């Protein structure tokens, strides 16, 4: 992260089930990655651009980027000046409860479009941040429910079920399982394909189609996800790095920043910190 960029990732104990990010990025480039949570990102300055579903989407002030869990996407500046945004990462259980209370969606709720211009919802997102920084959990929860309910009613619906229906897709799913099991010592693409009884090219094509990225990129994303869980448990970044298969902390830091948006140490501190009522979160 450069000197003219800043990012703060945190969680307030006053509102469980949601992480927050406030950031200013100019040259930042997010690698192709996924989130285990939903992403609701309100742009407050500039333009963010991101790859999603085979297209590049651009979101400016008053707009929101909306990403469903386990959905591959990227992120980068849409203009030379970069972008500033405030992001909510509500977990699946929280969104499901709000959907059940406020919508008629049946099944797993999700966003039908990745980018919308909705200043009202954007203001709710900013209000969640502001309320939590002030220690006002009641206001934060109220604005969170309003934002999620409004976005689901206007731009949401049931997510399609993901199933590996073809033989190639089932092979790609088996490859994912094997990579998860051997995260610290993964096989080569050729070795993985041979073990699954297919060719390297066929496996690569099937894996991209099912998971939205090649196996090596998926493995990096999965390692970062697992590292986050270890950091949440209190494991130091250096130990988390080797535990998930990175050669050292520097490699974890590089990949972590390109997926989460902050270094692992800053992430760990932000998730563990408790803010006093009336005191703003640090920049």
UniProtKB/TrEMBL annotation:
<dbReference type="Pfam" id="PF02311">
    <property type="entry name" value="AraC_binding"/>
</dbReference>
<dbReference type="InterPro" id="IPR050204">
    <property type="entry name" value="AraC_XylS_family_regulators"/>
</dbReference>
<dbReference type="GO" id="GO:0043565">
    <property type="term" value="F:sequence-specific DNA binding"/>
</dbReference>
<dbReference type="Pfam" id="PF12833">
    <property type="entry name" value="HTH_18"/>
</dbReference>
<keyword id="KW-0238">DNA-binding</keyword>
<protein>
    <submittedName>
        <fullName>AraC family transcriptional regulator</fullName>
    </submittedName>
</protein>
<dbReference type="InterPro" id="IPR037923">
    <property type="entry name" value="HTH-like"/>
</dbReference>
<dbReference type="InterPro" id="IPR018060">
    <property type="entry name" value="HTH_AraC"/>
</dbReference>
<dbReference type="GO" id="GO:0003700">
    <property type="term" value="F:DNA-binding transcription factor activity"/>
</dbReference>
<dbReference type="InterPro" id="IPR009057">
    <property type="entry name" value="Homeodomain-like_sf"/>
</dbReference>
<keyword id="KW-0804">Transcription</keyword>
<keyword id="KW-0805">Transcription regulation</keyword>
<dbReference type="InterPro" id="IPR003313">
    <property type="entry name" value="AraC-bd"/>
</dbReference>
